[in-house]
Amino acid sequence: MTLLPFLTAPLPIQVHIIAAVLALILGPVALYRCRRDHIHKVVGYVWVTAMTVLAVVSFLIPSHFTPIGIGPLHGFAILTLWSLWTGIKAAIARDIERHEAILRSLYSNGLIIAGAFTFLPGRTMNRMLFGAPSQLGWLVIAALLGLVALRVIRQRRARWGWA
């Protein structure tokens, strides 16, 4: 593991990574702490800010999948901004169940799924973790997507009463 790819990356990528790491670390505190206390609100505001920066800055990072520079991961950025907007609106409307569901889904599905694809060979996170562009990134992607799939299956089984 080396920080050199991060340190030599363009500024938008550095800001994007910092916001993502901050959101990953603060997410569980904001999402699983007692509601309506001061710490939950402060950490929540910082988390929403980090997620907003993460999504907005992603548009300054060109995709190599399309000739116009906008790729599939930019769709996650749009979905993130929409989820933040609707989650905050739900909190303002005192629809706490919806607020909680939207932001938990954004963290566990959006942040983790989009984050998994940062380990594609040749991307900064792949080079930081494995050195040279490595095919091992595919294993990280498979593991993270597998964990999300298991969580979704477990939730659906519980919701439908399947033990």
Give your account of this protein's structure.
The protein is globular. The protein has helices at 4-7, 11-32, 38-58, 72-92, 96-116, 124-130, 137-160. 23% of the residues are buried. By secondary structure, it is mostly helical.
Quickly count the helices. Answer: 7
* Broad structural category: mainly alpha
Unreliable spans are none
Fraction of residues in helix: over 70%
Beta-strand segment tally? 0
Rg measurement, Å = 17 Å
Q: Classify the beta-strand content into a percent band.
A: under 5%
The coarse silhouette is globular
Please supply descriptive tags for the structure shown above:
163 residues, mainly alpha, single chain, 0% strand, 7 helices, globular
